[in-house]
Amino acid sequence: MMDPILAKAKHAALCMQRNNWEQGVLAQAFLEAGDTDTAIQLAVEAVYRQQEDGRCAQIGGSNASTDPCAVGEALIAAAARTGDPWLAAAKDKLLYWALELAPCSPEGVVYHFDDSKLIWVDSCYMLPPFLAAAGCFNEALRQLDGYWQILLDPAKGLLSHQWDDAAESYPRKDVWGVGNGWAAAGMIRVRAMLPAGYEAQKRLLEDRIRMLLTNAFRFQRADGAFHDVLDDPTSFREINCGQMFAYTVYRGIREGWLEETFLPMAEKAREAALAAVDPFGLVQDVCGLPFFDKPGVAAEGQAFFILMETAREALYAMKAPQGE
Fold it and tell me: Is residue 238 packed enough to be buried (19+ CB in 10 Å), middle (13-18) or exposed (0-12)?
């Protein structure tokens, strides 16, 4: 039987209005949770809103380049499960956008928007997992490496939020908690999809994820939550980055490469998230809609609650003695 809190969180997520990346991240969450039918339904809706250039889930005139690719994993699964040529064609159009049409830097790093030369840490999650799921492993790794090289703050061992290639400066150099969560979660998804022969690349991703987790958890509050900007205690208390870090920890330990010393910190972050779920199943005090500049609710916060709980359940099922 599904945990009643998780059931409420899922229902609340489906009741929320969603932007293109939120549609994709939520579809990923249901796919990973084993609810393939709902993931397919979310992917189908994203295709109904596909632009001619291939970008999916487009509402409100979004000019994002990578966000529409977040639904890619669910779209691949939907096309494979249904055998529907319409879904297969939509997946191919989205992949063509990602590989051929999306604006990118001279080094080939895809910009976050189609009308500027901004590189955002968010893209670590929106684009590379889709590329890896489509079998474009080298390109997925190239994008992750490009974002890493551009956004890493070496002194902090964390990633800055935004770089502007045109101005050659950081519009926002802050080490945003959710941004580092996007990066850690995106890297762990790509790592899990890499086939045999990519052992060195897997180890590099493991090292980078471990670095982000180690340095982020230095700023975990006594109550298990974090601040919106990890190293700025004057920024607001925030829940979703803790969900993202916990998700990454649960998966890393289950996959056998991450140390269990991270588990108590993940459990503490999860407790903060559980305490933030209101009677309607909404995870409160995440980076909130509509501008993500204050605590509130957001579909991505719901999605990562689902992802966190799914990853934790899988970990503890593996650790349980046989027969339990």
Answer: buried
**Host H or E run for residue 47:** helix 36-48
Mean pLDDT calculated for residue range 60-65: 93
CB 102 within 8 A of CB 51: no
258-272: pLDDT as tens digits: 999 999 999 999 999
Tens-digit pLDDT profile for residues 274-315 = 999 999 999 999 999 999 999 999 999 999 999 999 999 999
- Residues in a beta bridge with 295: 287
- DSSP state, 56? -
Residue ranges with strand state E in the chain: 118-120, 152-153, 158-159, 162-164, 169-172, 226-227, 237-238, 286-287, 295-296
Q: How far is CA 99 from CA 20, 88, 230, 274, in A?
A: 19, 16, 33, 39
pTM over 0.85? The answer is yes
Calpha distance 241→174 (Å, rounded) = 14
Give the residues across from 104 on adjacent strands: 110
What value, to the nearest 5°, has the Cα angle with vertex 217 and ends 216 and 219?
A: 80
